[in-house]
UniProtKB/TrEMBL annotation, chain A:
Cross-referenced CDD domains: TM_PBP1_transp_TpRbsC_like (cd06580)
GO molecular function: transmembrane transporter activity
Name this polypeptide is given: Simple sugar transport system permease protein
Keyword ATP-binding: no
Subcellular location per the Swiss-Prot or TrEMBL entry: Cell membrane
GO cellular component assignments: plasma membrane
The entry's keywords: Cell membrane, Membrane, Sugar transport, Transmembrane, Transmembrane helix, Transport
From TrEMBL, chain B:
Organism of provenance: Prosthecomicrobium pneumaticum
Membrane topology of this protein: Peripheral membrane protein
Alphabetical keyword list: ATP-binding, Cell membrane, Membrane, Nucleotide-binding, Repeat, Sugar transport, Translocase, Transport
Recorded family membership: Belongs to the ABC transporter superfamily.
Cellular compartment(s): Cell membrane
Source taxon at top rank: Bacteria
Keyword ATP-binding among UniProt keywords: yes
Keyword tRNA-binding in record: no
Protein name as annotated: Simple sugar transport system ATP-binding protein
Phylogenetic lineage: Bacteria, Pseudomonadati, Pseudomonadota, Alphaproteobacteria, Hyphomicrobiales
MF GO annotations: ATP binding; ATP hydrolysis activity
InterPro entries reported in the protein's UniProt record: AAA+_ATPase (IPR003593), ABC_carbohydrate_import_ATPase (IPR050107), ABC_transporter-like_ATP-bd (IPR003439), ABC_transporter-like_CS (IPR017871), P-loop_NTPase (IPR027417)
Domain ABC transporter: 5-240, 257-501
From TrEMBL, chain C:
The entry's keywords: Cell membrane, Membrane, Sugar transport, Transmembrane, Transmembrane helix, Transport
Name under which the protein is recorded: Simple sugar transport system permease protein
Keyword Signal appears in the UniProt entry: no
GO function terms (MF aspect): transmembrane transporter activity
Record membrane topology: Multi-pass membrane protein
Length: 323, 511, 346
């Protein structure tokens, strides 16, 4: 019991919020492409280059903000290449996404070696991380619960605020509506003079923007360093969440919280002496189980007529053309 | 007086194929102008040129007497032209109002004003007598209402010249009649209507002027009142064609297919086939008539093992096949020409020979000792190419290099060359040119003469009347009635297709 | 010009463009492209030892590539080859060090168990894909991470070599997959790989089942209509694909490392997948692309010694090649769907 109390407390919730933020950012980015009808497996790579160039920008300019901008710019370049190949050249999106992921991995390591002469990770070198924001008055109002709302880096707030903003975006803005239409029925968009190509490019770039932010958050948020392949499958988990949520921001939030929690819990469990190798599998296993459960739940169900349903369906007067 | 629309010497080529050759079309303001012709006569191409979707290679477009260039649909819309496509372009998950205003949303402070869009849609709907509920999701609505929404979309964009491409193909006779009244209302308000059709009855009934196209050329433009139906057919086809019944001998033998109280649901879980029972005998062609989307597709899929039934049973001979796999049903003697040949009927990337091989790859002499005998496959493919007059470079040509009609012949060749006792034939001549159509009809009659049981599903009544021995009419998933095809009238079929029939009578006749 | 000729020329052109882009990247990291390519070439084909080394690197890429080809042929993406390779490698090593058995039998059993381990590892994603349509791209990718962590756990916590670091005990000599030459670790695995490539090619071309699988990959609805049970067949294809992935791990464990260790065979699974994609799923083409990637890998070993470029520069080149090629080939899955419609089951 005592162990459980130690395990589940405010600190765990705070850790969950923290670990949720990057995956939420990248998943929200993926919602643009998912809704526009593009299966974007390249999120992982966009996040990774975002993280790398954020660190580079931060070192070169001494500004975390410019670092974030550099990370976003790099992710946007990847997003643009993705859109060029998938939308314009009609290449297979799985192949392009995978290749971009591999490119991101190889490129960041090569550049790391070229610039810093090291392998493995970039630590120090004057990386400036993102500041932590204190919400004024939180301490007085909430006491020991204050860390729940205060003291996160800015991108954590951005991630969570984006959820309602995206709900509004998809429901009430023309671009949001059109992105959905392009995914659901491109013919309909084309017939009204909307350019499917332009909208898909826009969606892909918006996705790159958020994936870049997610990457910058990874390398300039709580830890200020870059390590080889540091996105370690978060982009793929985001894709899994996108599959269950179909790009709906609220359901995305719920899915990401689940993974953030699994992530935070696995970090905690390590400190309790569980073998780290097994504990680290937890988020992946959660993602897999969720993916399988969803597929099982949405399986086509076999309908059987009953005497009752048959009687009811036959008694409907067939002569109403309106149905 | 200026014409509302005047197309002069329009020529449009696709590669070596000329879809429109120096076609003239002149439409007076305030008239209903029908453009008629067979499949492939170039009607849709001409309309796409007028709507800016295609650019003519030669020729000139005048709107209200002024020469106009239409680089795209947006320009056409700006010029007051609207087009209702044959395949609706509506977004199922959006509401009626959202669909009507798609691409020209009403915004307030940068956000879409859904309330204003609904109000505006309701207003348009009242003004033009097109009843819709602006707040409803389009995915839940019937085809007839979807068409109204498409028309509303065009009206909301301020169109004065409205083009309708085959508007009645998906409608019941009543819905068509309502549509015609709406169109009359439009011309009474001074608008101009151009509609494409190959349904002669309705052309005669509703249009003021007719332009006939054949093989990409304009044959004539005449006031409808000066024409008879026979003259119109003569102009469309270029020769007198009779859709008379094929001569036949009574040959119905033992029952082959027996369907008992069959039910099935569609993708959305809604009942699509309701309590269907019938029999098909050896040497008999049973036709299934009905407006598209009344359960025929689902019925065919259940019989082919591609869709689970929700109740009931069916058997071939003595073998109960309810719930069995497509392989088991084929083994029991089914051959199937599917309704959508591009999706189900062929592998477009594979060669003609590889497509002919399907369903028999495990059987000698097609394969021996676990290996496919490709030289035999090629040899048989060549033989079928000859017998069915398939226009192709040879058995190794990929199917995608063939024309639509020839792809259908590949499907028919494969399915008709086995030893099946039951042929399930769904829309065998959809989109197929007249020559191929007659060849396929000949083949169906030959199969009948050889004693096969044939279920022929078609939305073309003339095809059913020409080939079938009995015609069952489906409406809303049910068999409304069974008629002897000998001496049946299109009117009698039309009533049943609209769902008007005492069901007690139909039940007895179907059994 | 006939279609196949044009297709091959297209691929060659795409590779040339990618190499040109790669040269730009090499310039960007401050190295001379000429020097890098020269070192890569000499490192791959400089002498007999180098060539043997290239073939040694080619072996796992080829076997993994064949695993990917098998799934691609049915229109499925097994991107979990990496994970199957790790599971197979561990399983084979376990048979190798854990049991004392007669020589030839020991090797065969080790390889068989490796294949079984790969098969078991894909079984769950394969089942949910075939039965319920769960996206196999994501599920197989995610299971890679689990496989790598799980085998590390097994190695370090349960089967660590006494006194060793993060590796299992060495396997018995009876379980060695024998080397072909005495100057290289190149082993009979390359022969197994080549035989597999030819066998799989022949199977798809000449047998009814191979025809059925090809048709399913090209148009699953047509296959279903023609009486092929696409669920069962898709499941079986993924299982076989996973088994071949496991076999690749077995060959590495018994032929090269002769034990299992952390970071056992990094990236071979992914290289195999992209080699197969580059060959457009053709097993014989995969021999060529796998050899190309094997040469790049072997050449890259010298790269860090002789130049300032890191050896990961070759993954950059590989990725660029895939991107260049992807722009002009329409993979089967894409070609069959209406452009623009949602192609994925969400």
């Amino acid at each position: 019991m005592e162990v459980l109390e130690k395990l589940f407390n405010v600190a765990l919730v705070v850790a969950t919020i923290r670990t949720t933020a990057p995956i939420l950012l990248v998943a929200l980015g993926g919602s643009f492409t998912t809704r526009a009808g593009i299966f974007n497996i390249g999120l992982e790579g966009q996040m990774l280059v975002g993280a790398f160039f954020a660190v580079i920008g931060s070192i070169w300019t001494g500004s975390a903000l410019i670092g974030v901008a550099c990370g976003v710019a790099a992710a946007l370049v990847f997003a643009l290449v993705f859109a060029l190949l998938v939308v314009t050249f009609r290449a297979n999106e799985v192949v392009v996404g995978l290749a971009l992921n591999i490119l991101a991995g190889g490129m960041t390591i090569s550049l790391m070696k070229a610039i810093f002469g090291t392998r493995g990770s970039i630590v120090g070198h004057g990386i400036v991380g993102l500041p932590k924001l204190t919400v004024p008055g939180a301490r007085d109002l909430l006491g020991s619960y204050a860390p729940l709302v205060s003291g996160f880096t800015p991108l954590v707030y951005v991630a969570f605020l984006l959820v309602p903003l995206l709900v509004l975006f998809y429901r009430r803005t023309r671009l949001g509506l059109h992105i959905g239409v392009v995914g659901e029925k491109p013919d309909a968009a084309e017939a009204q003079g909307l350019s499917v190509t332009r909208i898909r490019y826009t969606a892909s770039l918006l996705c790159g923007l958020l994936a870049g932010l997610a990457g910058a958050h990874m390398s300039l948020g709580y830890i200020t360093m870059f390590t080889e392949n540091m996105s370690s499958g978060r982009g793929f988990m985001a894709v899994a969440i996108l599959i269950f949520s179909n790009g709906d921001p609220v359901r995305l939030l719920l899915g990401c919280l689940l993974f953030g929690f699994a992530d935070a819990l696995s970090l905690r469990l390590q400190t309790f002496g569980f073998p780290s190798y097994l504990v680290l599998t937890v988020p992946y296993v959660v993602a897999l189980v969720a993916l399988f459960l969803l597929a099982w739940k949405t399986r086509p169900k076999l309908v059987r007529e009953t005497a009752d349903s048959m009687r009811r369906l036959l008694s409907i007067r067939p002569a109403s053309p309106e149905r | 007086m200026d014409y509302a629309v005047e197309l002069k010497r329009i020529t449009k080529r696709f590669g070596s194929f000329t879809a429109n050759e120096s076609v003239d079309l002149a439409v007076r303001p305030g008239e209903i102008h029908a453009v008629v012709g067979e499949n492939g006569a170039g009607k849709t191409t001409l309309m796409n040129v007028l709507f800016g979707l295609l650019q003519p290679d030669e020729g000139e477009i005048l709107i209200d007497g002024k020469p106009t260039v239409l680089p795209g649909p947006t320009a056409a819309i700006a010029a007051g032209i609207g087009m209702v496509h044959q395949h609706f372009k509506l977004v199922p998950s959006l509401t009626v109002a959202e669909n009507v205003f798609l691409g020209m949303e009403i915004t307030k402070g940068g956000l879409i004003d859904h309330r204003a869009q609904r109000a505006r849609t309701a207003e348009l709907s009242r003004t033009f007598g097109l009843k819709v509920d602006p707040g409803e999701r389009v995915g839940l609505l019937s085809v007839g209402i979807e068409q109204r929404i498409e028309i509303l979309k065009v009206l909301a964009r301020g169109a004065r010249i409205i083009i309708l491409d085959e508007p009645t193909a998906v409608l019941t006779p009543q819905e068509s009649r309502e549509l015609f009244e709406t169109l009359r209302g439009f011309v009474a308000k001074g608008m101009t209507v151009i509609f494409i059709s190959h349904h002669l009855e309705e052309v005669m009934e509703v249009s003021d002027t007719v332009t006939v196209l054949r093989l990409g050329k304009k044959i004539a433009t005449r006031p409808t009142a000066d024409l008879t139906k026979a003259e119109l057919v003569q102009m469309m086809v270029g020769r007198a064609v009779s859709f008379d019944r094929r001569p036949r001998e009574k040959s119905a033998g033992a029952p082959v297919l027996a369907v008992e109280r069959l039910w099935a649901r569609d993708e959305r879980g809604l009942p699509a086939v309701r309590d269907v029972s019938f029999e098909v005998r050896a040497g008999e062609v049973v036709g299934i008539a009905g407006v598209a989307g009344n359960g025929q597709t689902e019925l065919a899929e259940v019989l082919a093992g591609l869709r689970p039934e929700s109740h009931g049973r069916f058997r071939l001979g003595d073998v109960d096949l309810t719930g069995r796999s497509p392989a088991a049903i084929r083994a029991a003697g089914l051959a199937h020409v599917p309704g959508d040949r591009m999706v189900r009927g062929v592998d477009r990337h594979a060669s003609v020979a590889a497509n002919i091989l399907m369903t028999r790859q495990d059987r000698a002499p097609w394969s021996r000792r676990g290996l496919i005998d490709w030289s035999y496959v090629r040899h048989r493919a060549e033989e079928l190419i000859g017998r069915f007059d398939i226009r192709t470079q040879g058995p190794d040509a990929p199917v995608k290099s063939l024309s639509g009609g020839n792809i259908q012949k590949v499907v028919v060749a494969r399915e008709f060359s086995g030893d099946a006792r039951f042929l399930l034939v769904d829309q065998p001549t959809r989109g197929v040119d007249i020559g191929a159509q007659e060849a396929i009809h000949d083949e169906i009659m030959r199969q009948r003469a050889e004693g096969r049981a044939i279920l022929l599903i078609s939305v073309q009544l003339d095809e059913l009347i020409a080939l079938a021995d009995r015609i069952l009419v489906m409406f809303n998933g049910r068999i409304m009635g069974a008629l002897d095809a000998e001496g049946v009238s299109e009117d009698a079929l039309g009533l049943l297709m609209a769902g008007i029939a005492p069901e007690a009578v139909s039940r007895e006749a179907a059994a | 010009m006939s279609d196949p000729v044009r297709a091959v020329l297209g691929q060659v052109l795409a590779v040339a463009i990618a190499i040109a882009l790669g040269a730009l990247v090499i310039l960007a990291v401050g190295e001379s492209p000429v020097r890098v390519f020269r070192v890569l070439f000499l490192g791959a084909f400089g002498d007999a030892t180098k060539i043997a080394g290239t073939l040694l690197q080619t072996t796992p890429i080829l076997v993994c590539g064949i695993a990917a080809c098998i799934s691609l042929r049915a229109g499925l993406f097994n991107i979990g080859v990496e994970g199957q390779l790790f599971m197979g490698g561990f399983a084979a090593a376990w048979i190798g060090f854990g049991f004392s058995l007669p020589p030839v039998f020991h090797v065969l059993l080790g390889l068989a168990v490796a294949a079984l381990a790969g098969l078991a590892w894909i079984a769950i994603p394969a089942f949910f894909r075939a039965r319920y349509g769960a996206n196999e791209v994501v599920s197989t990718i995610l299971s890679n991470y689990v496989a790598v962590l799980l085998t590390s756990y097994l190695t370090i916590f349960l089967f660590k070599r006494p006194g060793g670091w993060s590796e299992t005990p060495p396997i018995h000599e009876s379980a060695y997959l024998p080397a072909i030459f005495d100057f290289s670790r190149l082993n009979w695995g390359i022969v197994i790989g080549l035989a597999l490539a030819v066998g799989v090619w022949f199977y798809f071309r000449a047998t009814p089942r191979g025809y059925a699988i090809t048709t399913m990959g090209s148009n699953p609805k047509f296959a279903e209509y023609g009486g092929i049970d696409i669920r069962r067949q898709g499941f079986a294809v993924l299982l076989v694909s996973g088994a071949v992935g496991g076999l690749a791990g077995g060959i590495e464990a018994l032929g090269v490392h002769r034990r299992f260790m952390e970071g056992f065979a990094p990236g071979f699974g992914f290289d195999g997948v992209i080699a197969a994609l580059l060959a457009n799923g053709h097993p014989l083409g995969t021999i060529v692309t796998a050899l190309f990637f094997g040469a790049l890998r072997n050449g890259s070993l010298l790269l860090e010694v002789d130049t300032n470029a890191s050896r990961e520069i070759i993954t950059v080149i590989q990725a660029l090649i895939i991107l260049a090629v992807s722009a002009q080939i329409l993979m089967r899955r894409r070609a069959d769907s209406t452009a623009g419609e949602r192609r994925w089951k969400f």
